Amino acid sequence: MKNNKWYFLVMMLLLSALVLSACGGNAEDAAQQAEQAVEQAATAVEEAAPGAAETAEAMAAEAEAAVSEAAEEVEAAATEVAPTVEAAVEEAATEAPMETTATLRIWADEQRIPVLESLKDQVAETIGVELVLEQVALGDMAEQVRIAIPAGEGPDIFIAPHDQIGSYIDGGLISPIDLGAKADSFVPSSLTAFTYNSDLYGMPYASENVAFFRNADLVPEPVETFDDMEAVCKDLMDAGTIENCTVFATTNYHLYGLNTAFGGYIFGQDADGNYMPDDVGIDSPGFIESGDFIQQLVEEGLVPSTADGATADALFGEGKIPFVFNGPWALNTYREAGVNYVVDPIPAGSAGPGAPFLGVQGFVVNALSEQQLLAQTFLTELVATDEIMQAFQDQDPRIPAWQATLDAVDDPDLAGFGAISPYASPMPNIPQMGAVWGSWGDAIQLIMNGDQTAEEALTNGAEQIREAIAE
Question: DSSP letter string over 131-156?
Fold first, then answer.
């Protein structure tokens, strides 16, 4: 009777160990607990009744074997059930998206919004962030962010042309961006454009620059230099084939590639590429030489004294001028006109090939946003990808700032512009650039009118710019 009593005690202890295992332990824990139970039971038996220990030991051995067998069965069953449980968890995760815990507000134009819309579900489901997208026209963006951001009502991210970042930085409106390893995936000149005082302030997506359009029916081969252009135009005009060599679309922006071909520049740059507002180059020797050449073209009747973009487009489309300085925004106009054109680089002057202005568009981050880290992560991890950058290109064909997308461009016109962009000159992004346009344009017009020599007009213009900067 006593032996049965101790047998019952041992079994109860062992069964307790199994119950503990079933409630959250595993087979190894159950075995350890069973072993402890056997030891406790044996000790109790030995203390309670001499001679009963041997009987209890035998019983414990049998019970331990039974527990071991049961534990193996439990472990096998758990292994069999695990895949089913894992699949159920994945299915539940798919059916129940992550609850959004943060919001990113983005202002973009009508071309970028559709692409960003495609990311909304992914962002919500994977990182629990709600994208709030608001369409703002590019022409209205600067005014609206300058009002909204200081009031705490602006976007976390917005798009901007690179030449506006200087004024945004001065106003404390945008913060630097660290692209990390992704920086190597962008066209270097596009990053240079968004660099200010050695810090990067934007993630670019597209660029644009002026090229030299050539009527291939009138001039079958590209001209390598501006002297070659002058000679070809003289022959065509003497033959009565054309009315002019070209018509300038503006008096400064479009012509900058010609100015740089002779060594002209707007602002000097330091060793790190930062623009120096105290080094104004409008009256530099190279700029004056380019002004002399412009005045010579006008005096020879190769170029009219007035600059008119609409006239330039019309005459080029009608085949009455063989060359025109223009950007990718003119492509549809020339295609619709049916002119057989080619997009060439800017010819060379005495200083080498011309480097036109480069304009870059990109995403910038609100310096007052409470989501700056999240905003940068969104841009670098979800927007800076081959898929999204190609989607931007498909939506609005431009010169891509993402190298892989640029390499994949199969449009010969865009490829022609893209070949120029690596050595194009980013338009200065410092606030002092605002003091340049008026005096520079006036000086070029005085040169074209013949009212002043290039040296006189550009020297006076440069002095006006320096005075405006100093105010």
Answer: EEEEE--HHHHHHHHHHHTTTT-S-S
| Residue 74 CA to its chain's centroid (Å) | 55
Q: Is the pLDDT of residue 170 over 50?
A: yes
Considering the four listed CATH numbers 3.40.630.30, 3.40.190.10, 3.30.1330.60, 3.30.300.350, the one that applies to the domain covering 211-355+430-470 is 3.40.190.10
Domain boundaries, given as residue ranges, for the chain = 2-95, 102-208+359-424, 211-355+430-470
% of the chain exceeding 70 in pLDDT = 79
Mode of pairing for the β-strands spanning 275-280 and 267-269: antiparallel
Nearest in space to 382 (alpha carbons), one of 209, 136, 126, 54: 126
The per-residue pLDDT for range 294-338, each reduced to its tens digit, is: 999 999 999 999 999 999 999 999 999 999 999 999 999 999 999
Distance CA 230, CA 232 (A): 6
* pTM of the model as a whole: 0.75
Q: Please determine, for residue 91, whether its predicted confidence score (pLDDT) is greater than 70.
A: no
